[in-house]
Specification:
Blueprint: E1 7-10, H1 16-24, E2 28-31, H2 37-43, E3 49-52, H3 60-65, E4 76-79, H4 89-94, E5 98-100, H5 107-122, H6 125-133, E6 151-155, H7 159-169, E7 174-178, H8 184-189, E8 193-194, H9 197-200, E9 206-209, H10 223-227, E10 233-237, H11 246-255, E11 258-263, H12 274-281, E12 285-287, H13 296-314
Parallel strand pairs: 1-2, 1-3, 3-4, 4-5, 6-7, 6-9, 7-8, 9-10, 10-11, 11-12
Length: 336
């Protein structure tokens, strides 16, 4: 099925392992970071494929600029990461451009950050540590709660959700979960009792989300859902900004309905809205600047995986045959 990929444009910072692997298989690589949309539309015409992370947006306009009709030769867009929110998959499919990601590359890193944030909500060591730096000894002020015996609800039982379940069971938590695709048997194999959302809300002490951001999951945790939860429920988002309604969480924190929240992702990054800024500043909120995949191991892993998939598409090496991350698989037929 070989796809003719000779020249690749890397638009966002990826580990050098990606570039090295592509070059070792006869593919030319050009690094051009932080391109404005107009610059990207001009540049994309000169390349067969593009690699991005989170910063660069591959919009319909960019895809049209790289199309054969516009004099381009764009055939593939790869994201060194799990989601493809910043790529217009429908427009790419229309232009017969293959879209792929690296779905498993950062699973462990995102999982581990999730677990740490759950711990930070149970035991407020973040503000306690800051108070120590400021010369205070607020031992009684920062009393916490045990995770043992508490119920953790995981919304989204894919790779990351199941990894979180495995680790938090070791802390003695009861794990319940929701996923419209995962079967009861698959959930049970990971130690998760699968339930409906309506069953989950009143049972959960902690809720963590691990779904893509799609119309069905936008504001999945909202004011209505929080109102059905236990008083003091804690929520965590290391998935995508927008899955949890920030204004609803802020109101619930003020009323005491929500006992704490941890956010690694936001609808706009860096955050600019007053709601998001108020949420970050709230004393019961732990926030981090989208660090889910920010480990040295994950960065190497996703860089290598996206390169391996590009090489597999070209058929240049029998060593690489995976298309695991291809999102719009029907486009592959065009190149057969």
């Amino acid at each position: 099925m070989p796809v003719d990929i000779k020249n690749v444009l890397v638009c966002d910072a990826v580990d050098s392992a990606c570039v090295d692997l592509l070059k070792s298989n006869g593919i030319n690589v050009t690094y051009k970071l932080k391109l404005a949309k107009e610059q990207l539309c001009e540049e994309v015409k000169n390349y067969d494929a593009v690699i991005v992370r989170s910063d660069t947006k591959i919009t319909e306009e960019v895809l049209n600029a790289g199309s054969a009709a516009a004099g381009g030769s764009l055939k593939a867009v790869g994201r060194a990461g799990a989601g493809v929110d910043n790529i217009d998959v429908a427009a790419a499919t229309k232009q017969n451009v293959i879209v792929l990601n690296t779905p498993g590359g950062n699973s462990i890193s995102a999982c581990e950050l999730t677990c740490m944030l759950i711990g930070a909500l149970a035991r407020p060591f973040v503000p306690a540590g800051q108070s120590m730096k400021e010369g205070r000894w607020d031992r009684k002020l920062y009393s916490g709660t045990e995770l043992y015996g508490k119920t953790l609800a995981i919304l989204g039982l894919g790779r990351i959700g199941r990894e979180v379940a495995i680790r938090m069971q070791a802390w003695g938590m009861k794990i319940i979960g929701y996923d419209p695709i995962t079967t009861d048997a698959e959930a049970k194999a990971a130690g998760i009792e699968k339930m409906t959302l309506e069953q989950i809300w009143p049972l959960a002490d902690y809720i963590t989300v691990h779904t893509p951001l799609i119309p069905a999951t936008r504001n999945l945790i909202n004011a209505q859902a929080l109102g059905k939860c236990k008083k003091g429920v804690k929520v965590v988002n290391v998935a995508r900004g927008g899955i949890i309604d920030e204004s609803a969480v802020l109101a619930a924190l003020e009323s005491g309905q929500c006992g704490g929240a941890a956010f690694d992702v936001f609808p706009e990054e860096p955050p600019k809205s007053e709601i998001t800024k108020a949420l970050i500043q709230h004393p019961k909120v732990v926030s981090t600047p989208h660090l889910g995949a920010s480990t040295s191991e994950a960065q190497v892993r996703v860089a290598v995986e996206v390169a391996e998939q590009f090489i597999a598409l070209t058929g240049k090496s029998k060593e690489y045959t995976t298309y695991a991350g291809v999102i719009n698989r029907d486009v592959l037929k065009v190149y057969q």
